[in-house]
Amino acid sequence: MKEKLMQMKSTMKENLHGKNIFLYACVFFGLLAFDLGTKAIADCFEPHFPVIKGFLHIDITHNTGAAFSFLGDKEWAMTFFIVLTVFVCIGLTVWLFCTSPKKVLLQLSIVFLISGAMGNFIDRVCLQFVRDFVNFPWFANCNFADFFITAGCVMLFVHLLFTDDEALFKPSHE
Q1: Whole-structure pTM value
Q2: Which residue is catalytic, options 35, 73, 132, 165?
């Protein structure tokens, strides 16, 4: 156990002094700015604006819940999602710093997850709802923070399935 803690401390030190941390900070702030910027631009449009008729529309909605307005009708939901986001982002940040700098895909997936979570967190704290505006009439209304969370999950699964030391489908190097 003590050896594992020493290894984590060494990895954290390596991450803090490495070049990746600056790159990941730039990615984080870039994604966050893009999400908040596109939400601000979308607020300038009419509530419903077709981009590609029948496929992609700008449709401004205010979501007080989570994905697909889950728990949006509950009084306590906003507080719950704000607190949950804080704990998840703290956990993800610790995971990011405890992960070997050689695991770039894993670290990038964590940065995408945190960026998306923080984009929606800022909306929840400042506006008491999340601005969704990208509407696929055959699916749902969402925003770029949701895309970043989805991309982060996909990258995480790819890492766990194919590139991790204990990957399920790790290629053999014979």
Answers
A1: 0.85
A2: 132
